[in-house]
């Protein structure tokens, strides 16, 4: 008995591809741009604040190194208090710039001359205990002072270091640094004078040996 072959059925034609209209594509691009731009601002802002934080950490470390170097500077008996102050200030500036790491030690970010300028007596006490050298301030006082306050405190006569060698007194080093702002939006918020720089400051105090 012969079996008849089953008849073959033709495959069903594939449905036509649905094509996106031009309006849908345009809407997708607009939505993508609306999401991408704020996201880029957030990412770049995180990078900017990371740079500011890193610069502040490096500046704090540099202030500590400068104060340490100034505290161990050896007083020579032939020096006057003015000469001793200049040499300690110079030693502090050199140590600070060497500890800067990735920070720039040139203008407009940072400026200080080596050696420190002579004849500085900024608080008028005649004891040569306050030295201003660009973005570096080195001062001597008999006791500790809170960050941001004067060293020595002019309102407290006992806060002055009257020892020529400075032994037993405190040396305080304050550094200032101008970090670049790379985000235009943050520049208008953080930078008051519009020069694209944000000022950071750090200080450290140590007992002089």
Could you characterize what this model shows?
This protein is an alpha+beta fold. The chain has one domain (25-207). Helix content is 36%, strand content 15%. It is built from three helices and four strands; from the N terminus they run H-H-E-E-E-H-E. The protein has helices at residues 22-71, 81-98, 184-190, and strands spanning 130-133, 136-141, 170-180, 197-207. A four-stranded antiparallel β-sheet has the order 1-2-3-4, with helices on one face. Strand 1 and strand 2 (136-141) form a beta hairpin. It is rod-shaped, with a radius of gyration of 33 Å. It starts with 21 loop residues before the first helix and ends with a strand. The model has no long low-confidence stretch (mean pLDDT 78).
Low-confidence stretches: none
Q: What letter string, H or E per element, gives the SSE order?
A: HHEEEHE
The secondary-structure class comes to alpha+beta
Q: List the domain count as a whole number.
A: 1
| Major sheet attributes | 4 strands, antiparallel
Strand portion: 15-25%
Overall spatial form: rod-shaped
- Count of separate DSSP helical elements: 3
**Gap from first CA to last CA:** 120 Å
Mean pLDDT, to the nearest integer, reads 78
How many beta strands in the DSSP annotation?
A: 4
Q: Helical content, roughly? A: 25-40%
**Nearest-angstrom radius of gyration?**
33 Å
Strand order of the largest sheet: 1-2-3-4
């Amino acid at each position: 008995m012969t079996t008849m072959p089953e008849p073959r059925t033709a495959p069903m034609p594939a449905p036509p591809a649905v094509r996106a209209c031009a309006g849908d594509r345009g809407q997708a691009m607009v939505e993508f741009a609306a999401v991408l731009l704020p996201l880029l601002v957030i990412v770049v802002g995180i990078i900017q604040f990371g740079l500011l934080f890193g610069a502040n950490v490096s500046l704090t470390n540099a202030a500590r190194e400068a104060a340490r170097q100034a505290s161990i500077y050896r007083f020579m008996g032939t020096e006057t208090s003015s000469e001793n102050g200049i040499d300690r200030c110079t030693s502090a500036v050199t140590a600070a710039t060497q500890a800067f790491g990735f920070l720039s030690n040139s203008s407009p970010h940072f400026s200080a001359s080596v050696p420190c300028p002579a004849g500085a007596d900024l608080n008028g006490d005649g004891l040569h205990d306050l030295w201003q050298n660009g973005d570096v301030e080195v001062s001597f006082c008999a006791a500790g002072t809170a960050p941001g306050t004067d060293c020595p405190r002019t309102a407290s006569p006992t806060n002055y270091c009257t020892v020529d060698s400075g032994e037993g007194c405190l040396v305080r080093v304050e550094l200032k640094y101008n970090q670049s702002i790379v985000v235009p939006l943050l520049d208008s918020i953080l930078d008051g004078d519009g020069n694209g720089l944000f000022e950071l400051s750090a200080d450290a105090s140590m007992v002089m040996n």
